[in-house]
Specification:
Distance between the termini: 144 Å
Number of helices: 5
Structural class: alpha+beta
Oligomer: single chain
Radius of gyration: 52 Å
């Protein structure tokens, strides 16, 4: 063995010896510390409870470790109490909030049910009106439940009591039924639209619109028996009087036709007569001025003159008549409006 190797061996032995000594010292110090700590925790304590009265003094012995452990357990229990109490209050607030939301949802649901009931009342009226219209026009009635025998009406299955399928509310089932009915109603309504479009020319040839428009328009005298505004006696009024409380409002032709008379007399004042198809005539009297001329072809809704107070009149108004042949008829039967009668 060489001299260098011997030197290395001696160095390794010295290092190993120092490390072993250092480790031993550390463990010894740890053991000493633990022993001192154990002695500290094992110190005996006597706790005495002395009552103010002449009662017996209560005392018990313990050690530092048991006292610290008791303190930690008490602190843990108190902390747990406050922690769970905080979460309990938060949970109670959340439950209260959910309860209020549930009340609001129930109120909304009740309102929805009320609106649903109103919807079906309107659907009943719609069904009745549509059925009458289809019957008058000779169009096939709607039957959304073709597999079932018909009962009181097209919506009978909708308004009669029925079992609701599992998992579906009554309201949803009814709305689905109503939707199905309305989808089936589209075709006959389209047929009505086509029929009206085909008859559009006929409608313009019949006096069926109001001859005067205005914000204060009203019927000042209806057709039939009335008291004469000047003579004060009963007589047969052969037309309808329309008033807006002012002169100058435009007067329109109630149907397409040809102007056959533009004239004036002591009774009607300034007046116009229009000849329509199907043997019908209309007269417009007490005009302040004319806009149409004799022989002119006019369209329904075209302005032919202006409201006035000429002839036998107690104020600005239009006297309007409808004649079929030699007969005078009530214009209200043809005008599709509802006006206030003064």
């Amino acid at each position: 063995m060489s001299k260098t190797q011997v030197t290395v061996k001696k160095f390794e032995k010295r290092v190993a010896s120092k490390v072993s000594f250092g480790v031993g010292t550390i463990f010894k110090s740890i053991g000493t510390f633990c022993l001192k700590l154990f002695k500290v925790f094992d110190n005996k304590l006597t706790i005495m409870i002395v009552p103010h009265s002449q009662g017996k003094v209560i005392n018990f012995q313990t050690n530092v470790f048991a006292l610290i452990l008791t303190f930690l357990l008490a602190a843990g229990m108190i902390s747990s109490f406050f922690y769970f109490n905080k979460h309990s209050l938060a949970s109670n607030r959340e439950i209260t909030s959910l309860t209020e939301q549930n009340k609001e949802n129930l109120a909304s649901l009740d309102q929805l049910r009320d609106e649903n009931a109103n919807l079906f009342q309107a659907a009943k009226r719609f069904q009745s009106s549509l059925s009458q219209s289809l019957s008058l026009l000779g169009i096939k009635q709607i039957n959304s439940n073709s597999d079932k025998p018909a009962s009181d009406g097209d919506l009978s299955s909708l308004f009669n009591s029925k079992e609701v399928v599992s998992g579906t509310s009554r309201e949803v089932a009814d709305i689905q039924e109503l939707t199905s009915y309305l989808e089936d109603a589209v075709e006959p309504i389209e047929q009505i639209g086509k029929m009206l479009k085909n008859q559009q020319t006929l409608f313009t040839e019949i006096p069926n619109i109001c001859p005067v428009k205005g914000p204060y328009l009203h019927v000042s005298m209806a057709f039939g028996p009335n008291i004469h505004p000047k003579k004060g006696i009963w007589y047969i009024h052969k037309g309808m009087d329309f008033s807006t409380y002012r002169s100058g409002d435009p007067v329109m032709a109630t149907a397409s036709g040809q102007v056959v008379t533009v004239g004036a007399d002591s009774s009607y004042g300034n007046f116009i007569i229009i000849k329509h198809k199907h043997g019908m005539y209309t007269r417009y009297a007490h005009l302040s001025s004319f806009r149409a001329t004799k022989g002119q072809l006019v369209e329904q809704g075209e302005v032919i003159g202006y409201v006035g107070n000429t002839g036998v009149s107690t104020g600005p108004h239009l006297h309007y008549e409808v004649h079929i042949g030699s007969d005078v008829v009530d214009p209200a039967k043809y005008i599709n409006i509802q006006l206030q009668l003064r």
